[in-house]
Design a protein that fits this description.
single chain; 404 residues; Aspartate Aminotransferase, domain 2; Aspartate Aminotransferase, domain 1; 2 domains; seven-stranded mixed β-sheet; 14% strand; globular
Length: 404
């Protein structure tokens, strides 16, 4: 049965109870291998002539349900699950690029993606370049004869800058180049890059897909032919596959994805409005703010502004760390999308591996903080942030103020 609405797909796609002893929940198939009914059946399955499971590194019923459900939510033909978000990123980049190729990337990328790109350049002679991707002409000029793919984060981690996905996809299609989008910050509930013309979408499923801070995982969704190629090569042979229990936890998380994202977004909207104009704040970066430079683009390609805010405080690293250390409810941690509100300092944490010169180009200064709004009452989140501001009052680099 096909379902029209996102919330229904998130609960039902991929699971037929009649095929699993009428179990309401998807069973955990905690097995490494599967028994063949006959030697001939085993031969046919290895030859791809018969449906059926062989070995959990190749496919597993619990993992398969997750892959099918994520494909439905993203509007793709097929999904592939991996042991981590970086396993998913690695699979796509290694699977679609070869020695001598060039990868065109959005100006900002996650620190470990940045590290992987440099590793690939050093070890495999696969070069890359970072581009703001603000205009069609800029992208056309940056594409060279050996550009094999375009890799985008939008919103970009941690500056929240957006890339016009439809515009990039249009340019790429004229050149026959696939476009890959890291959709971690939005989840398929807030943004669907495939519907905008992009070719592959990936997630660190550790974040909003899970939502509870207890799973490491990655997902890739796209066309059947590309997914088949990745499954038969980098997924099978490199082997960064997802465990059945992790897939089961992610399936559980997905059931409440829409409800959770609505609350994350509501909290982010409230907190962003309070941060703006605060005496200790220099700037706030939130796509849901109608004064955000790319607000019109956010309205076109995102359902809402998301649950992530980045902001700069007056001062530098010392002030940023003093602010974080004064917090109590909000936890200092580098993940996002959890029920708990989390804060981190990108310059010394998630993006510490990025060369200082590149960090500056990306807009990642020592006074930038990234806030992942959780599911708590927004009033309690704001009260905790006020603790951080109070801790800054007596520092010589910041002017005292009367809290209102």
């Amino acid at each position: 049965m096909k379902y029209e609405h996102f919330e229904t797909k998130a609960i039902h796609v991929g699971h037929d109870q009649s095929q699993h002893n009428d179990s309401l929940a998807v069973p955990i198939y905690q097995t490494s291998t599967f028994v063949f009914p006959s030697a001939e059946s085993g031969e046919r399955r290895f030859a791809g002539q018969e449906q059926g499971y062989v070995y959990s590194r190749l496919s597993n019923p619990t993992v398969a349900c997750l892959e099918e459900r994520m494909a439905a939510l993203e509007g793709g033909d097929r999904g592939l699950a991996f042991a981590s978000g970086m396993a998913a990123v690695s699979a796509v980049l290694l699977g679609l690029a070869k020695t001598g190729d060039h990868i065109l990337c959005s100006e900002g990328v996650y620190g470990c993606t940045y590290g992987l790109l440099h590793y690939m350049e050093e070890k495999l002679n696969i070069s890359h370049s970072l581009l703001s991707m603000e205009t069609k002409e800029e992208i056309e000029q940056a594409i060279v004869h050996n550009t094999s793919l375009i890799y985008i984060e939008s919103p970009i981690n941690p500056t929240m800058k957006l890339v016009d996905l439809q515009m990039v996809a249009h340019v790429a299609k004229e050149k026959g180049i696939p476009v890959i989008v890291d959709n971690t910050f939005c989840s398929p509930y807030l943004q669907q890059p495939l519907a905008l013309g992009c070719d592959l979408v990936l997630h660190s499923a550790t974040k909003y897909i899970c939502g509870h801070g207890d799973v490491i995982g990655g997902i890739v969704v796209g066309r059947e032919d590309v997914m088949k190629q990745l499954a038969a090569t980098v997924q099978k042979d490199i082997g960064g596959v997802m465990a059945p229990f992790d897939a089961w936890l992610l399936l559980r998380g997905i059931k409440t994805l829409a409800i959770r994202l609505d609350r994350h977004c509501e909290n982010a909207e409230k907190i962003a409005a309070l941060l703006k104009g605060h005496p200790h704040i220099e700037s706030v970066y939130f796509p849901g703010d109608n004064q955000f430079p790319q607000y019109a683009l956010a309205q076109r390609q995102m359902k809402r502004g998301g649950g992530m805010i980045s902001f700069t405080i007056k001062g530098g690293k010392e002030e940023a760390q003093q602010f974080m250390n004064a917090l109590s409810l909000i936890k200092i941690a580098v993940s996002l999308g959890d029920a708990e509100t989390l804060i981190q300092h990108p310059a010394t944490m998630t993006h510490a591996v990025v060369a200082e010169e590149d960090r500056e180009k990306m807009g990642i200064g020592q006074n930038l903080l990234r806030l992942s709004l959780g599911l708590e009452a927004w009033q309690d989140i704001w009260e905790d942030l006020e603790r951080g501001f109070t801790a800054l009052q007596n520092m010589p680099t910041v002017t005292n103020y009367e809290s209102n």
